[in-house]
Amino acid sequence: MFDPSLLDLLVCPENQAPLAVADDALLAQVNQAIGQGRLKTRAGRELVEPLAGGLVRADRAWLYPIVDGIPILLVDEAIALDPISPEEKRAGSF
Fold first, then answer.
1. Please, what is the average pLDDT of the chain?
2. Those residues with Cβ within 8 angstroms of residue 80's Cβ, 6 or more apart along the chain or in another chain
3. How far does the chain reach from its first CA to its final CA, in angstroms?
4. Which of 44, 65, 78, 85 has its CA 20 to 30 A from that of 22?
5. Contact by Cβ (8 Å): 38, 30
6. Rounded distance, CA 93 to CA 33, Å?
7. pLDDT band for position 94 (50/70/90)?
8. What percent of the chain has pLDDT over 70?
9. CA-to-CA distance for 52 and 44, rounded, in angstroms?
10. Rounded mean pLDDT, 19-25
11. Which pLDDT score is estimated for 85?
């Protein structure tokens, strides 16, 4: 499980923006979009497995997956949230 106290130390690797733990509502929307084949990583890899967690950038443009409790803060692994509607992207804990 990811330790939320680490958020004080972690920032987006692209622009150093703050990150927040994606809440259950956003994760549900992300996983629904993954199931529909609508989400890809920045590198273009199609996502096929649902996410158990993620860190969302302050502007809600990108989500970094959390895998086995470890945030994957690689720019190429960021997941574009463009295919998710603005209402859905508001979910988060900023």
1. 89
2. 39, 40, 41, 42, 61, 62
3. 20
4. 44
5. no
6. 20
7. very low
8. 89
9. 20
10. 95
11. 63
